[in-house]
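Section 5: illustrative case.
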């Protein structure tokens, strides 16, 4: 895993931060709804006082996005990773992961607009959200004015001034420039490349420190933002959040089932065997809400229950767990569509394509942030002009959807592995070839004889 010890140690404190944020959100909803219902001058008078506090916190989050994304993309692309230099196997694995991510994005792009178009919200709630969007930023107003045509969109991919693109929040051109620049750096002398790499690593580490300082205030930020929302729309705000939880959880579960179909139809793995091999890893993932924690169980199931070659499972599964965040192509894209409906920001095919193209590199390059605020995906929301206030509120209620995110990630990891085995000419063994756990092709691997502990 690419995380430093400092990030891992901080992650230990995540549950308390998550719980505190959820408490702040519930308290903000309750007091704000009370203010809306009673029309109390005292409670409503607190809104103008709290607005600058929420605005400052949101701006603090926004200011970290560009240095975080640019530095991490640069470091990821310029880094030498001997473990990934495995020729055709590595290319096949990357192609499979890319295709599965594209399938998830296509699934959400197909069903998401149809779902959000049928949602109905209380008029007071819609009016509040659209007032927020109207005054949020120039980006929101540009998005509301309409999406660019295809020709303008293509021309806009290459920025004439990269600094202007960064200042205007044009994330896709900025990311494209960063990728090209990092690829160019790989072709300069090792000494100069190391110097640039040290600079960008320093920027990345300093940005992470700054982010941790800002995230300490997450409970306060969640309280302030939800108080403002509920004071302007009443209990309709709670209904909005409940609708989101139910729908996004259902979509994640639906695409989890799609993975089973892909494994059966494309990789030709019997459904029962695939489900049995995957179940222990799913249980670990659901109990920890961490796909990384499920890696040992994934490898156990792949090798001992499916008879997968250790050369395939030992490469595909760690790679998938480290980089394959398929849940984002479902939950994050749907969140954008959902918030676009609330804020009155039209998101057409061009907007969806822009959003997905930004998500592809940042989900791979930017490691897990020590928070559930989804800073990794903020560049994509910013590109559509969606106010970050809505993103923060949605992410603060992520406890239940996060269970289904882990489920779809773990299932996708195993699906990618069986697909790689199939297309590498080493499909998983038939039922009669795996006579006992740990036997692959009739022989038990010596290394696993003593080191593996069956998970059942």
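Designed sequence:
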């Amino acid at each position: 895993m690419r995380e430093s010890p400092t990030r891992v140690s901080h992650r230990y404190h995540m549950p308390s931060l998550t719980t505190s944020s959820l408490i702040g959100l519930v308290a903000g909803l309750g007091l704000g709804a009370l203010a809306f219902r009673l029309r109390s001058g005292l409670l409503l008078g607190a809104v103008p006082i709290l607005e600058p506090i929420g605005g400052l916190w949101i701006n603090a989050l926004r200011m970290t996005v560009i240095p975080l994304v640019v530095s991490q993309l640069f470091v990821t692309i310029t880094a030498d990773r001997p473990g990934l230099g495995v020729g055709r196997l590595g290319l096949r694995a990357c192609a499979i992961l890319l295709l599965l991510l594209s399938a998830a994005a296509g699934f959400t792009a197909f069903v998401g607009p149809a779902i959000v178009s049928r949602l109905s919200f209380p008029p007071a709630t819609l009016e509040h959200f659209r007032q927020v969007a109207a005054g949020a930023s120039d980006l929101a107003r540009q998005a509301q004015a309409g999406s660019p045509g295809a020709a303008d969109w293509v021309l806009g991919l290459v920025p004439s001034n990269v600094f202007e693109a960064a200042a205007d929040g044009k994330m896709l051109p900025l990311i494209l420039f960063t990728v090209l620049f990092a690829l160019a750096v790989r072709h300069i002398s090792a000494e100069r490349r190391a110097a640039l790499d040290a600079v960008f690593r320093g920027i990345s580490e300093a940005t992470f420190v700054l982010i941790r300082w800002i995230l300490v205030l997450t409970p306060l930020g969640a309280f302030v933002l939800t108080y403002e929302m509920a004071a302007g729309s009443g209990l309709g705000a709670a209904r909005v959040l409940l609708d989101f939880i139910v729908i996004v959880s259902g979509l994640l579960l639906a695409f989890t089932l799609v993975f089973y179909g892909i494994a059966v139809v494309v990789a030709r793995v019997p459904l029962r065997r695939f489900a049995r091999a995957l179940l222990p890893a799913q249980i670990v993932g659901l109990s920890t809400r961490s796909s990384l924690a499920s890696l040992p169980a994934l490898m156990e199931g792949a090798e001992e229950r499916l008879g997968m070659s250790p050369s395939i499972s030992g490469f595909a599964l760690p790679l998938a767990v480290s980089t394959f965040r398929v849940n984002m192509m479902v939950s994050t894209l749907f969140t954008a569509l959902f918030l676009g409906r609330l804020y009155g920001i039209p998101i057409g095919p061009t907007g969806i394509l822009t959003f997905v193209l930004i998500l592809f590199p940042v989900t791979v390059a930017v490691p897990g942030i020590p928070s559930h605020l989804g800073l990794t995906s903020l560049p994509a929301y910013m590109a559509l002009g969606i106010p970050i206030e809505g993103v923060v509120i949605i992410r603060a209620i992520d406890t239940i959807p996060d269970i289904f995110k882990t489920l779809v990630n773990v299932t996708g990891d195993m699906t990618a592995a069986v697909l790689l085995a199939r297309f590498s000419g080493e499909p998983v063994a038939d039922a009669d070839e795996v006579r006992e756990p740990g036997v692959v092709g009739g022989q038990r691997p010596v290394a696993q004889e003593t080191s593996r502990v069956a998970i059942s």
